[in-house]
Amino acid sequence: MKAHIWEEKYILAKNYFEKNGNLLVKNDYVVNNIRLGRWLDTQRNDHFNNKLSKEKIDKLNNIGMVWHKFNEQWDRNFSLAKNYFETNRNLLIPSRYSTDGVNLGMWISDQRKSYKRGYLNDYRIKKLNSIGMIWDELDYNWKQQYNFAQSFYNKYGHLFIPQDYELNSFKIGKWLSTQKSEYKRGNLNTERITLLESIGMIWDFPPQNQTSFFEQAVFFYIKKSIPNAINKYTSLGFELDIFIKNLKLAIEYDGPLHKLKKDLDKNFKCKDHDINLIRIREPGCPILNDTSIDFLLKDISIKELESTINDVFSFINKTYNTGISIDIDILRDKQDIYDQYIKYINHIWLRNFELAKEFYSSYNHLLIPARDKFKSTNLGSWISRQRKEYKKGLLSDDKINKLESIGMIWDVNENNWSNYFNSAESFFNKNKHLLVPERYVDDDNIILGKWLVNQRQSYKNKTLSTNKIKKLESIGMVWDVRDLKWDIGFNIAKKYFLDNGNLYINTSLVIEDFNLGSWVSEQRKLYNLGTLSADRINRLNSIDMIWNHNEYTWNYFFKLAEEFSNQHNSLLVPYKYKVNNINLGIWISRQRKKFKENKLAESQIKRLNSLGMIWSIKRST
CA-based, 20 to 30 A from 196: which of 133, 278, 297, 512? Predict the structure, then answer.
């Protein structure tokens, strides 16, 4: 019956194919009250799930069955994508781009989504790869922009770039600034961090190097006309973008992030020093109420900046009668403006180096904390930055040689370790051990005790280098202090045993400032708890360790009682009778008392009975 129904529907499909030339039947298509579209979909599903016989598959293939209903449409869209690639050499298609009635941009986007979700089969992936498919467009764009930065680094050897600097219409300065922001937020993955650091990226760019191309353009033309102009002048205790000392004239270039309070504060400081202050201010900067000579840019364009720089020179000529005439063409001079900026950065480095040299001459080291200043300059921060750049391989040989000539220590932690090790070595040479109290401080104020605790912890955590382990062991380092203290205690106990023939020790006994009685008592406790190692038990047994102090004491007194019984043929020991200054009479009396209180063990009773113990004695009146 089922076979008959299948044949009936197959004939309808065959008729459809002969009439239309395909079997791309809509799902809701009905003929002779039979849902042919749905039936064909069922055949596709059965074929996919291996439920369709070979005979049926062959019959359907004979009438042009399309097993993957959407293959033809996909192949058509692929052909359009291939044509686009052959024309444009990429598949970076705008999302709204359409051709031949197909939104090709959206189709490519859908292929990327299907690929990420794992819905795209290997055949389609291979075909798309053959025409240069970019699966992750954002990552591709990032790498293209990175290539621009890499080219810049290969040419100039650094990434000191003003934020608004452009390279072949690519805003490389802004892009690098964005990478630094993403890095600080923790949004930059390890691969990108590594790539950027390989081309000299400095995440904490020094404040004195932060500038804009527009600011450097202003300085370029001022410097060209007035050679003694200084960029980033700080000798007055505050920074001026440009300072012309002989004219007592300062020029500031202000971006939109400038704060009114700080700007006004600088204006008043200039007034106190009798300095005329010109401000070139971008749109959006607050008004300063005539406390400076302000030139306001109408927009952020090169043409507007050129016009404003000309206005500034007109003011200088009028105020100082300088007669300056200059041709301003920023696009023409773009490379020269940038080159001057690089010279300025190198000048800053040399200026800071001279300060470091002076600091070294005064203090014979460069171990200056990162936040410390020297002569109003953040020298500590600068020294720290040189160490970071050295570790990343970003310092030139010339700079390395200069810094090493004034005693630069590249690894401060390693240097500190050496200083502490020297202190430990001195302590060992003097005391023959490294059992240093945790709070011990040497004559040079080195907290040696705490440092040794940290070294032992690093050793335990397996974070101490082999070289450091060897160096510390060469001066008698004991990694487990408890082992060393135990050995010291055992050696003192052994000496006591050899001198006295036993370890019958009072808990308060102290020898050579070591509480031997307490130590021996502690070993008994550990033994009874089952936490004393077999090695330590054997070593203590070698010197006749008394594991049960009470039992040993009882046996000792029993031996004295036995000797008394053998001598006197009885155990009627007088109450105050002593042997070797030991009160045997009191001990015998205590045994009788324990017997009456049922506190004496059966074995002890038997042993005392064997000596003729009389448990009840009538006292004479």
Answer: 133
